[in-house]
Design brief:
Length: 436
């Protein structure tokens, strides 16, 4: 599949909602599975990654009923009710499915086998297998149990643990906290910088005892989880492509409603503002996960520095921010983002190479990019490397390039934002065509 993108001459205009938050959707399915009694989830992201998580809990013996678009009823089996699956769990492209599930499986006295697609089988799993082994789980598999396919056998109770991961990663933090539900005592995760806190919020909502103090999160086991109602807000990581496109394309004005404004995820807004964009935020009614409306339009951008504690707050938005930086006035430096190299693709290399084909000047650094800025992009034939966020970032670049851009290998967009092309086409009629 490919996208053919032309300059969006009339601007992007309209009001929209983006699909449900991917991180929150995964967590709702997983916690719903191990809670006692039913959970009702609405706004669930029906994209490939989150459907992998639904498939996995079903194979672990959990009944899931789809009651409507994005609306699921999950018949939780409690902390002791999961069953040993009779087949390998395929996590597809989804790192969150694999890593969070490993946390849960560490507490199950059964063998489970996990695998994933070509990209996921290349991604590092030592970051979760190491702490889970320290807690007493057995993890075996390729590369000494550090790459999928993996097999895990859990133990009950697991040992308690204080874990200090070398990089801020919500997936690692969540895996350890989830395993902690079956530990004999508290588990503590102390991160070098704050990562997204959806697991902490949702664990509390399901009744778990979780306390957080700056970069230190503690889970005290010993209480059952209770099924509940979860309303998933729109994904700011998907909204980011539309926000940046509206900022870059002359004559744009868009309004995105019902989008997550969790402060551990809003780094994109801080950076766009620092670059000179005007993004108005209107907070919605208070709730476990904050959400609201974002309004954005065309603006003149300048370069900036993106580094340090900001990185985990916008890690998934760096591909599209690289597009903004390529055309902004002045230089942008992205540092402390070595994690970008172990996402669905090596995003540092992919962005430098593919945006380079369009005339942008990006210099690779081990932990980021140096982006010259001031580029006048020209249409080119580019490729996503099978990475959904690279694909969508390149499509946004196509909207402001001169001439036509063809983005190859775009089926991957379905992992997080299946309606992306349709949404862009509605906001900027005629700008995007999907080709099989
Ligand atoms: C996620 C955490 C981040 C992010 C990923 C989703 C999550 O990964 O990039 O898309 O839902 O916990 P890391 O934890 O590896 O940084």
């Amino acid at each position: 599949m490919r996208l053919r993108v032309r300059p969006a001459t009339g601007g992007l205009r309209g009001t929209l909602e983006v699909p449900g938050d991917k991180s929150i959707s995964h967590r709702a399915a997983l916690l719903g599975a191990i809670a006692e009694g039913p959970s009702e989830v609405s706004g669930y992201l029906e994209a490939e990654d989150c459907l992998r998580t639904v498939g996995a809990i079903q194979r672990l013996g959990v009944e899931v009923a789809r009651k409507g678009p994005g609306h699921y009823r999950i018949a939780g089996v409690g902390l002791e009710g999961l069953q040993e699956p009779d087949q390998v769990l395929d996590c597809g492209n989804s790192g969150t499915t694999a890593r969070l599930l490993l946390g849960i499986l560490a507490g199950q006295p059964a063998w489970t086998l996990l695998t994933g697609d070509d990209s996921l089988r290349r991604r590092p799993m030592a970051r979760v297998s190491a702490p889970l082994r320290q807690m007493g789980a057995t993890v075996v598999g390729r590369a000494d149990g550090t790459r999928l396919p993996l097999a895990i056998r859990g133990r009950r109770p697991l040992a308690s643990l204080t874990y200090r991961p070398p990089v801020a990663s919500a997936q690692v933090k969540s895996a350890v906290l989830l395993a902690g539900l079956w530990a004999e005592g508290p588990v503590v995760v102390e991160e070098p910088a704050v990562s997204r806190d959806h697991s902490e919020r949702m664990l509390r909502q399901f009744g778990a005892r979780v306390t957080a103090d700056a970069r230190r999160v503690t889970l005290d086991p010993g209480v059952p989880l209770r099924g509940t109602v979860v309303q998933v807000p729109g994904d700011i990581s998907s909204a980011a492509f539309i926000l940046v496109a509206a900022t870059l394309v002359a004559g744009s004005r868009i309004e995105i409603r019902g989008v997550s404004l969790n402060p551990t995820r809003t780094g994109i807004l801080d950076v766009l503002e620092a670059m000179g964009a005007r993004v108005e935020r209107r907070e919605g009614p208070s709730s476990i996960e904050p959400s609201g409306t974002l309004i954005a339009g065309e603006a003149e951008l300048r370069g900036t520095t993106i580094a340090g504690a900001l990185i985990p707050r916008l890690i998934d938005e760096l591909p599209v921010l690289a597009v903004a930086a390529a055309v902004a006035g002045g230089r942008t430096e992205i540092r402390d983002a070595a994690e970008l190299r172990v996402k669905e693709s090596d995003r540092v290399a992919a962005l430098a190479r593919e945006l380079g084909k369009m005339g942008a000047r990006l210099e690779e650094r081990p932990d980021g990019l140096l982006i010259a800025g001031g580029a006048r992009l020209s249409g080119a034939r580019v490729s996503s490397d099978g990475d959904h966020r690279v694909a969508m970032a390149l499509a946004v670049a196509g909207l402001i390039a001169e001439g036509e851009t063809v983005v190859e290998d775009t089926a991957c967009i379905a992992t997080s934002f299946p309606e992306f092309a349709e949404t862009l086409g509605r906001l900027a009629p005629g700008a995007v065509t999907v080709e099989p």
